């Protein structure tokens, strides 16, 4: 018996070692693009084009990060990114929660059909609607402004409506009934009862919105043309040209900018992962 027990413990340890080894290899493989970007951000412009390439530069250029941060346009691009994040996050939290509340807490004819139509719009690729949107915003005179990027958030995004609706359905309806007995109307129930206990899903959707608009490139590239309105994702593409060389990009500085842009989403996820897991988990408990 003792020999069998020792054999099982040995096999268990060997299995764990193999599992951890495989996980470490996968982690290195997944993290390699970030490692490569960081490596190139510490090289000179000639060092990036060196062949064979070196993962560890001979003379790390940490000054590349200072040069990026001292660029006159970096703060402008950063401000624009914050404007898009704050505007879209406020808009999507407000509109998505309001749309999801009656779909989850009220009984009315066509409720399920309305929810099905909202979900069906998620199947339409965004690129297929970009031309009609461009024409609409051009007729409204909104091109080259933040309006085409922020105003749509106040009309609720389907995926966020789905998350809010699923979370609201996990809240006991006895709360609504008790509040109505006390004389509360639907708006008071929503603002004073539902919203305070729905903090996890508000944080979850807020984080997802912030990360999305921090990384968004396509729509700002379509609707914005002025340099003083571009966010970091678009501005970094046209910045950091080599002095005296027309059209030549300083790739080492762009890699430094990319590395700096990767830090905020990682930190945000690190500190808010608990709320993300809680919000996602409770959003799928009921149909």
Topology:
Elements lengths: L1 H40 L3 H4 L14 H8 L3 H32 L5 H10 L9 H11 L6 H4 L7 H12 L4 H8 L4 H9 L4 H17 L2 H6 L8 H7 L12 H32 L5
Helix pairs in contact: 1-14, 3-14, 4-8, 4-11, 4-13, 11-14
Give a written overview of the molecule:
The protein contains 14 helices and no strands. It is flat and about 75 Å long. The chain has 2 domains: 10-63, no CATH class; 64-282, Orthogonal Bundle (MetI-like fold), CATH 1.10.3720.10. Helix 4 runs antiparallel to helix 11 (199-215). The chain starts with a helix and ends in a 5-residue tail after the last helix. It has helices at 2-41, 45-48, 63-70, 74-105, 111-120, 130-140, 147-150, 158-169, 174-181, 186-194, 199-215, 218-223, 232-238, 251-282. It is mainly α.
The global form is flat
What count of helical segments does DSSP give? 14
CATH second-level architecture of the largest domain: Orthogonal Bundle
CATH class of the largest domain: Mainly Alpha
Number of structural units classed as domains: 2
User: How many strands?
Assistant: 0
Task: Report low-confidence residues grouped into runs of 5 or more.
Answer: none
| Proportion of beta-strand residues | under 5%
Give me the Rg, rounded: 25 Å
Biggest beta sheet attributes: none
On the 0-100 scale, what is the average pLDDT?
Answer: 84
Oligomer: single chain
What structural category do the secondary elements indicate? Answer: mainly alpha
The CATH topology assignment of the largest domain is: MetI-like fold
């Amino acid at each position: 018996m003792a020999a069998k027990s020792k054999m099982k413990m040995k096999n268990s340890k060997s299995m764990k070692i193999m599992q951890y080894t495989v996980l470490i290899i996968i982690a290195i493989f997944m993290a390699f693009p970030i490692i490569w970007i960081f490596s190139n951000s510490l090289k000179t412009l000639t060092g990036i084009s060196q062949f064979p390439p070196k993962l560890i530069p001979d003379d790390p250029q940490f000054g590349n990060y200072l040069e990026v941060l001292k660029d006159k346009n970096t703060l402008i691009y950063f401000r624009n990114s914050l404007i898009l994040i704050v505007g879209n996050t406020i808009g999507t939290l407000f509109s998505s929660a309001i749309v999801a509340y009656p779909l989850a807490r009220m009984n009315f004819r066509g409720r399920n059909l309305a929810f099905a139509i909202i979900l069906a719009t998620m199947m339409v690729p965004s690129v297929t609607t970009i031309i009609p949107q461009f024409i609409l915003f051009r007729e409204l005179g909104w091109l080259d402004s933040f309006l085409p990027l922020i105003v749509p958030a106040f009309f609720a995004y389907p995926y966020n409506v789905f998350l809010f609706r699923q979370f609201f359905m996990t809240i006991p309806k006895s709360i609504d009934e008790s509040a109505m007995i006390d004389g509360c109307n639907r708006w008071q129930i929503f603002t004073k009862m539902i919203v305070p206990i729905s903090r996890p899903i508000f944080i979850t959707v807020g984080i997802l919105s912030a990360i999305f608009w921090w990384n968004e490139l396509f729509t700002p590239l379509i609707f914005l043309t002025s340099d003083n309105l571009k966010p970091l994702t678009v501005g970094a593409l046209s910045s950091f040209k080599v002095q005296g060389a027309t059209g030549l990009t300083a790739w080492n500085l762009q890699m430094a900018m990319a590395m700096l842009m990767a830090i905020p989403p990682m930190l945000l996820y690190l500190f808010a992962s608990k709320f993300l897991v809680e919000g996602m988990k409770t959003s799928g408990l009921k149909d």
